[in-house]
Amino acid sequence: MRQLHSEHLTRDTGDHVLNPDLGPYARWEGPPRDAAVLIPVIADVRNPSVILTLRTAQLSSHAGQVAFPGGKIDDTDGGPRQAALREAHEEIGLEPSAVNPIGELSPYLTGSGYRVVPIVAEVLPGIDLAPNLGEVDDVFEVPLAFLMDPGNHRKQSRTWNGKPRYFYEMPYGDRYIWGVTAGIIRSLYDTVYG
Questions:
Q1: Rounded to whole angstroms, how far apart are CA atoms 116 and 34?
Q2: pLDDT (tens digit, 9 = 90+) per residue, 24-80?
Q3: Is residue 52 part of a domain?
Q4: According to DSSP H, which parts of the chain are helical?
Q5: Hey, is 74 helix, strand or coil?
Q6: DSSP-assigned beta bridge partners for residue 2
Q7: 3-state DSSP percent of the chain in helix, strand and coil, to 5
């Protein structure tokens, strides 16, 4: 994977890019809430892949959706990188010692009021993962080549408050990758190949 450089971190990314009339935080009043996700790329020279999760159905937000490991940045985290590593360890048992962070993407602004910093990292191949069943139903991999193929980035819409709201989707087999997760994948594509 190409190295991420600081000039790539000035992109405007978020749900509002496809929905400029809704503003950056369509369903949130007040300052954004800080969060971070880890984009764990398994460093297999022949077939790199990205680790994703399927969130449990009983969660209060984004239940049953495909997501990156991650969550809110706690005051004790020391920043997005530490938060992403902590969350990945809590959610899927990914040991920080098996992770080599290589950069971060521009913050992704969500309609629900989050400012999400994606941390891109290489992960050693062959690691054992243990999902936290209170948060994650499944952990799976998707080939990086599939995710970085713009032909797999489909723009879709659903009606929200009487208007179409646009988002990316990237169905992979029986996995439906969409919304913020697909938007962050598209941001990774635009950063690396744009």
A1: 6
A2: 655 667 788 899 999 999 999 899 999 999 988 775 555 568 999 999 999 999 999
A3: yes
A4: 15-18, 80-92, 144-147, 179-193
A5: coil
A6: none
A7: 25, 35, 40
Closest listed residue to residue 122, CA positions, set 103, 136, 109, 107: 103
**Residues contacting 97, CB < 8 A, separation 6+:** none
Residue whose tokens read 């439906």: 176
3-class secondary-structure state, position 148 = coil
SS3 190: helix
Q: What amino acid is encoded at 95 in this protein?
A: E
Domain-located, residue 147: yes
Measuring CA to CA, how many Å separate 16 from each of 64, 112, 148, 167? 23, 11, 21, 9
Specify if 1 maps to a domain. no
Spell out the residues 6+ positions from residue 170 whose beta carbon is closer than 8 angstroms to its own: 146, 147, 152, 153, 154, 177, 178, 182, 185
User: The domain that contains 150 carries what CATH number?
Assistant: 3.90.79.10
Quick check: is 81 in a domain? yes
pLDDT tier at 9, thresholds 50, 70, 90: low
Domain that holds residue 45: 6-193
Residues 6+ apart with CB under 8 A from 87: 36, 37, 38, 69, 70, 71
Transcribe 89-136 into DSSP letters: HHHH---GGGEEEEEEPPPEEPTTSEEEEEEEEEE-TT------TTTE
Looking at the structure of the chain, the number of domains it has is 1
